[in-house]
Write a structure and sequence with these properties.
The complex is a heterodimer of chains A (390) and B (410). By secondary structure, chain A is an alpha/beta fold. Chain A has eleven helices and 14 strands. Chain A is 29% helix and 20% strand. Classes of the chains: A alpha/beta (390), B alpha/beta (410).
């Protein structure tokens, strides 16, 4: 049997779907230039894609048709040579709406395989976010903002071709830089894009991530029930309503915390999370009313605490809050846990104020121009600078 | 002006005899079963049922929500939802009306809804024709519907009561369609024993939706989207429910005989003059009448022909039927339906009978298929004799076409 190559592209549906598809197709076309057959496909169960929910695209390539069929006989690859995450917050894990439980970003990586992440963060941040792996693997960071290339009017920021250049560097057996440059030229007719791929090839470096590095948590798992263990009639018991809970400081009981879905968590749906200034909150209830995911717990002292079990990071609370910087959306890469902010504030209000300011000050923009009119245009120069300077 | 009905009439304490059609018999069964929600949309010949039900409601003899929908799709959707909320329901249709409801018909067994429907069997369009063909009801044969064919108004009434008992059994919770041949059953009157309410109440417990009840006190989500991680398990549950139907049907017929004193013998198929038969004919619904007459005439000429009339098509009593058929030297299956392009181009029942016989350890008699009586065409005694003659020739080892059209101008 010949050699089988598998590459997965993890992205956030639906915004990055075209980007992921373009990368996946170009991998197969470039390998084809080098005489290898291949296929490219999106994970069928991810579709119809939900906004921001992690999804996957796969490129399977082989040295011959018979070997390729070995790869095609599976619904999706069980192990990959390269995992590409086109959003660094995906390193916290992948929870597709097509499966249950949380999969570490590096779950499918073969020993010595490479995780390519587009990020402006340092390798340490990415490693801390990613779950530990039983064997060493390589990490290559492609400096860049989270790309929406291929989506509506979003600019092409060369994320796709830069990633292709990196692949030809870290896995030269798959395809050469020359082959991928030919494909880029054929598809885009843009010599600058061809150049971008070469620059990425030249500048790439990867570091080895050891088994003792990374998030030591066991990822959240869910066992699918057997047919006779499931309820009949396609009827699912509802999530109980929930109720009052205790203030850890005063021991007062009150407020309201809705019960949450026991099997679908939203830890990896988010790219941002609201940071709440409880000292300036006027208890107007708007965030609680408008949250589409009922993520706010009403605390016994009638404040509103965004519960990270339920928050999907949409930013509606920030948009509706009438108090300046009372609710601020902050990049998910800034957080190592899903702890309650209200509990932190109750324990140490001074300490919380310091923590809050550190999160808000100099925060990395993640809103893709959705915060206010004209914001995207303001972000373009930085985006282009990263693309040309890497 | 007639006096408006203000209350439901006192339930009758004793049995009585009435001259009613098959459709009216089904309507009476609905009254006796105290059905909660009935939806209607007119299409001939089913519409006779809705007319009789409307009359019962207007006369104050029956208390139910009676809703005339704007089409069959809504008609079946409304009762599906009502049943999910714990209501005993009834509806029905015919021909292309039934087909128009198809999406609702597919989701009903998947959601384990014990809906009882009457199908007034009618040829599918085109051409627009009112006469009987069985293709309408057979269109749902793979989906988890229980399908039963009756051949008299008495059997229609009794089977409707039995269908409620079986379908609403918590072990089953599957819909059931009772097929009544258009015209021959829906529009012709016969003397029917109408049982007392007391007997019906003793036979038929109230519908209890139990853990699947859609109600604020039992908050559940019904019919969410599911992906490949769930669908096989859900289908396997329906398979299990359908597997249990045979046993529950047997229980219900035994109880029916005990309470009503009317025995049906084998619930799944009825045998007529088979004890000494050389060959048998098979079929469903009212064509049993001309077949029985022909059998009596042929027996006078020394031809020992019998009849096996299938009542329950789903579940299909395959093993039992295969055992029964081993006794005969050849079998002729009369289909009032077609399945173009099917194996040997035969009708649906013929294919099912061959399928039932194949794994049987016993002797496998040759099975001939006859397509006959389409669009409500009369199945005549000479037609039946012609079919029997061919079956006899097959029994003698002579080659016969596996599918023959009988009663066709040619």
């Amino acid at each position: 049997m010949g050699r089988l190559f598998a590459i997965e592209i993890i992205y956030r549906g639906i915004f990055q779907k075209t980007l992921a598809k373009n990368i996946s197709r170009a991998i197969v076309l470039a390998a084809h230039e080098d005489g290898k057959p291949g296929i490219s496909f999106g994970r069928y169960g991810d579709s119809p894609e939900r906004n921001g929910i992690p999804a996957k695209n796969f490129a399977i390539v082989a040295t011959d048709d018979v070997t390729l069929e070995e790869g095609m006989a599976k619904y999706e690859p069980k192990e990959v040579d390269i995992t590409i995450a086109v959003d660094d917050t995906l390193c916290k894990g992948v929870e597709s709406w097509a499966w249950y439980g949380l999969q570490p970003v590096n779950r499918l990586l073969k020993p010595g395989g490479t995780l390519i992440v587009t990020s402006r963060e340092k390798p340490e941040t990415i490693i801390t976010m990613s779950h530990r792996k039983e064997h060493p693997y390589q990490l290559a960071i492609m400096t860049g903002t989270v790309s929406f290339s291929g989506l509506w009017a979003y600019k092409d920021d060369h994320t796709d071709v830069r990633i292709l250049g990196i692949i030809s560097r870290v896995l030269p057996d798959l395809f050469t830089l020359k082959s991928v440059q030919k494909v880029i030229m054929d598809v885009s007719k843009d010599p600058i894009k061809v150049q971008s791929a070469a620059k990425a090839f030249d500048r790439t470096s990867s570091i080895t991530v050891r088994p003792d590095q990374g998030n030591p948590e066991a990822p959240y798992k869910f066992d699918l029930p057997k047919w006779h263990e499931m309820g009949e009639g396609i009827a699912i018991p509802s999530i109980p309503a929930g109720g009052a809970f205790e203030d850890p400081e005063t021991h007062a009981v009150g407020g309201f915390r809705p019960d949450r879905n026991p099997t679908f968590k939203k830890y990896t749906t988010r790219t941002m999370r609201p940071v709440i200034n409880f000292d300036t909150c006027i208890k107007c209830t708007l965030c609680w009313l408008q949250c589409p995911d009922s993520c706010f717990d009403v605390t016994p002292d009638r404040l509103y605490d965004a519960n990270m079990l339920a928050c999907c990071g949409c930013g509606v609370c920030e948009a509706v809050c009438p108090v300046k910087e009372c609710v601020t959306m902050v990049n998910e890469t800034e957080f190592a846990d899903n702890a309650s902010q209200w509990e932190m504030w109750k324990k140490d209000k001074k300490g919380y104020e310091v923590w809050l300011q550190s999160k808000i000050a100099g925060r990395r923009e993640r809103s893709h121009g959705f915060r206010y009119r004209g914001q995207y245009e303001e972000q373009i120069p930085e985006m282009l600078n990263i693309a040309s300077e890497g | 002006m007639a006096e408006a009905a203000t209350s439901v009439q006192e339930h009758k304490k004793t049995d009585e005899t009435a001259l009613i059609t098959g459709s009216e018999a089904i309507a009476v069964a609905c009254k006796l079963a105290d059905v909660d929600v009935i939806t209607a949309y007119p299409i001939r010949p089913y519409d006779t049922v809705m007319q009789y039900v409307a009359k019962l409601v207007a006369n104050g003899e029956m208390d139910c929500e009676y809703i005339v929908a704007e089409g069959e799709h809504s008609q079946f959707e409304i009762v599906k939802h009502a049943s999910a909320c714990g209501a005993r329901v009834f509806c029905g249709s015919s021909g292309v009306g039934w087909m128009y409801a198809m999406e609702a018909l597919t989701v009903t067994p998947a959601l384990r809804i014990p809906m009882i429907a009457m199908v007034g069997n009618r040829a599918l369009d085109d051409p627009g024709a009112f006469g009987v063909e069985h293709n309408d009801a057979l269109a749902v044969r793979d989906l988890g519907w229980q399908l039963v064919w009756v051949n008299s108004p008495q059997e229609a009434l009794d089977t409707a009561l039995i269908a409620y008992r079986v379908s609403e059994d918590r072990r089953i919770f599957l819909p059931c369609a009772i097929s009544c041949d258009g015209a021959f059953l829906t529009h012709s009157q016969a003397l029917v024993q109408i049982p007392s309410q007391e007997k019906v109440d003793a036979f038929l417990p109230r519908y209890n939706r139990a853990d699947l009840l859609l109600h604020p006190d039992n908050p559940i989500t019904v019919a969410p989207q599911g992906n490949e991680d769930w669908v096989m398990e859900i289908r396997r549950q329906n398979f299990a429910a359908m597997e249990r139907t045979a046993g529950v049907i047997r229980e219900a017929y035994a109880d029916f005989e005990r309470i009503f004193g009317r025995p049906y013998g084998n619930p799944f198929f009825e045998e007529y003059k088979t004890e000494d038969a050389d060959i048998v004919l098979m079929g469903m619904g009212t064509l049993s009448t001309p077949v029985r007459v022909a059998i009596r005439q042929m027996r006078e000429k020394g031809k020992k022909v019998g009849l096996v009339r299938m009542r329950w098509f789903r579940p299909f009593a395959a093993e039992e039927l295969a055992n029964c058929l081993t006794r005969f030297s050849a079998v002729g299956v009369i289909d009032r339906d077609y399945s173009f392009g099917s194996p040997y181009m035969g009708g649906v029942l013929a294919g099912e009978v061959r399928n039932a016989l194949y794994p049987s350890p016993g002797r496998k008699p040759p099975v001939l298929g006859f397509i006959c009586g389409l669009g409500g065409r009369e199945v005549t005694v000479p037609d039946v004799e012609k079919m029997a003659d061919s079956v006899y020739r097959a029994a003698e080892g002579k080659s016969q076409p596996l599918t023959q059209w009988v009663g066709l101008r040619e």
